Amino acid sequence: MRTLRLAPALLIALPTLATFATRTAAGATRTAAGQDVLPTPRQVVSRHLAATGLSERPAAKKSRRAVGKISIPERQLEGAFETVAARPDRYVQRTNIPGLGASSTGYDGDVGWQMQAMAGANVLEGEALRQLQHRALFDVEAHPAELYESMEVLGKVSFADRECLRLRLVRKAAGTESTAEGRALREIDEFYDVATGLKVGSRSTFAGPTGPREVTVVYDAYREFGGVRVPTRITQEMGGMQVVQEVETVEWNTVDEGAFEPPPEVRAILKKRAGSGDV
User: Fold this and answer.
1) Mean pLDDT throughout 28-50?
2) What is the pTM for the complete model shown?
């Protein structure tokens, strides 16, 4: 049974580009007294969708495949990655880094997993699964309102050497996420370039196997693939270590259904659980 699903098309009505005609270059309107008035959360998101091209016939994009290089500069390691995604909520990222081996993280609409060469297979549960489910949503960039407890523009800040609008998102609670500690795992701060409207990055708390860890992601070097602008340099920092992804190609509507099949090791865990009644 699926625990989280989106409709085939975007679940929100996107404002027209005319919404932005009255804005200043700083991404805000001005009062008669010359004071900036911050845009609403929906205006911030809609401006990003318009800037990337995601607001144009979004339902026509049914799947996405991105490939490129992945590196850990501090350890002088470099390899390759592939990310595939499909409506409404399927996602797999595979990496292969010499010295670390092959790994994958995925959600097939029912099961979330991580597979690492050294640590083996792990079926995700709890907050870790819910965070992956959120990441797997194909239309997550549109921020459908029903996914969030609250959305708030907190103001202008400097992020990645850019003036940005800071958007605070709080995902709706499930299970132990209703606790104070769980709320920290549901909060996501996103940063949108005041000048262009593009998303520059995010900051959130990751539910890792060794406990919560803060992770910062920076998006840069947007390029157009199939009518959609996507960031081609993605830098993730957690615990003082950076992982850099450099996207080389993006394809739309070319992903095979079999791409989301869990690896044999994960299927073996599920089979064992089913046999013992622990499902």
Assistant:
1) 81
2) 0.82
